[in-house]
Amino acid sequence: MLTRNGPEQPFAGPLLGPAGTVAEEDPIFALLQAYRQDDRTGKVDLGIGVYRDSLNRSPVFRAVKAAEQWRVDTEADKAYIGPLGDQAFCEAIAELALGQPLADQLSTRLACAQTPGGVGALRLAFELLKQMNPDVCLWLSDSTWQVHRPIAEASGTGQGTYAYYNPQQGRQGFDVMLASLQAAKPGDAVLLQASCHNPTGLDLSADEWRELAVFCQQRQLLPIVDMAYHGLGNGLEADATGLRIMAREMPELLLCYTCSKNFGLYRDRTGMVAALVQNEALRQPLMQQWMQLATRHYFTPPAHGAMLVRRILQDEDLRAIWQQELEKVDTRLRGVRDALYSALSKAVPQRNWQFLQDGQGMFALFPLSVREIQHLQQAYGVYIVSNGRVNLSGFNDTNLPTIVAHIAATVSALASGSYQEQAC
User: Fold this and answer.
1) From 66, 97, 121, 145, active-site residue
2) Catalytic residue flag (residue 145)
3) What's the pLDDT tens digit per position in 209-239?
């Protein structure tokens, strides 16, 4: 062993420093690691946020396969695509998210950059906030995607929390949400999820989006719309309702979009960040800001996924195939929600499962304690995030009855005191 002052003192080099500090592991990926090390045949992963079909596969869309073959046949070079990425891809995503009429109307006020997935989009958006307003506070919902806050912390933005969800009550009233945002000062930003809220699955209504747009205008707050599950809720048009209301009403907003879920391009890191600015004169300076921020981090985004998405959205036949495939995903998730609601309401009637029918998308927060979640993992190999977030696509016709029985047995065992907690 290397030593600095003799054999008794380990060398503390520049990589870890004197204290040997090691970064904490992300809880969801720690859960995935534990799942992979579990050698039980009946284990089930309901944690990691990747869509699974009825055969427990994360499928490659047929439209994506066809676009990949097109890419192989037509790609002429492998040169860098530049810090702003594939601008034709960005235009196609803006049209998909906003709808063509609104995208055309706002085109001279939209400054877009392709990013490495939704995380890249969020990082650039948060850093832009900090750069433009060092005193900005970014307001996040009390229940949000677990990576939102670390990204904000890394960008140096201050953070606030607004009321959205209560474990005992479900989604808190919209009036409570607005009341909590009264503390936001002019120039602050509010992070909003467009649809299929992660982790709750419970979304704002169209009327609430309209009222929120008025509130943000009056309070001079900047909306940041995170669009990670477009098309996995009530379809492409309905899932874009909130974004489109905000884009029509607000002078400025930021949009963070990822193709990981709705195109199945998780590992290809395909995303976009867009700024809607007040007037056309501000568009080019904002493009320069995106270019500068991108260059600091990764210089240029990967071309592969953006090429595929652009091809699918620009080819009428491939787009039709993709939309049919996405509708099947949507239908399957709604079917899982209905089946779970029916089964759990009978098997565990002492808990309220209405949120399964009220929500949409891949995720829901199950009303389970940390001890119950640990018991499910230790006794049955059912892996759930410690806050109760469940990836509903992990259920299928084969395992759903068994998992429901495990949940019922766990709730009963802990209620009766028969479960002796094991050491983790």
Assistant:
1) 145
2) yes
3) 999 999 999 999 999 999 999 999 999 999 9
